[in-house]
Amino acid sequence: MLPGCDVAPPPAGLRLIAIGASAGGVEALGIVLRALPATCRAAVVVVLHLAPGRSSQLPQLYAERCQLPLREAQDKEPLQAGVVYFAPPDYHLQVEPDGCFSLSQEAPVYFSRPSIDVLLETAALAYRRTMLAIILTGASADGAAGLARVRQLGGSAWVQDPQRASCGIMPAAALKLAGADRVLDLPQMAASLALLGDGEHK
Known about the structure:
Protein name: protein-glutamate methylesterase
Enzyme class: hydrolase
Shape: globular
Number of strands: 9
Oligomer: single chain
Strand order of the largest sheet: 3-4-2-1-7-8-9
Helix content: 25-40%
Domain CheB-type methylesterase: 10-193
Largest sheet: 7 strands, parallel
Active site: 22, 49, 142
CATH topology: Rossmann fold
């Protein structure tokens, strides 16, 4: 059995939390984002697959549920601690080595732009051991290769339990290719993230 299930703080010293979700992700993200404490010192970056051409209102959707400021990521914008960023629709969101975002309209990955893999693979190079990647519910294999890269470079990986996810294809693909440090259902994940302020001081 993969590592699981007790509630425990995330690793200390996190500077980035990157979250990927697809089918079923709107509800799952609401649970995860609500759990983030105001004391969170990491930047949080979210890729949620949306239909092409669909306007993103994600910051507004989650504003009342999250204690942290939320906004859509902008090209060349430096990541700030304690802010939640959403990938804009129809753009890949990358993290540059200098800690700034860049946007691109390169070809979709697994039919998706933004791609979770693109975010995770670029962020892993910039943040390495100070990064936590989270894969939630979804219906493709996007995120699996990126999660493997995060782990290869020393970052941490949490994956939603595929059997408890609205759509288990994406978390199952991530586990098959990359494995995970922890496999959690949403209540366990939320309870662990709520300890962020505690974990950073240990």
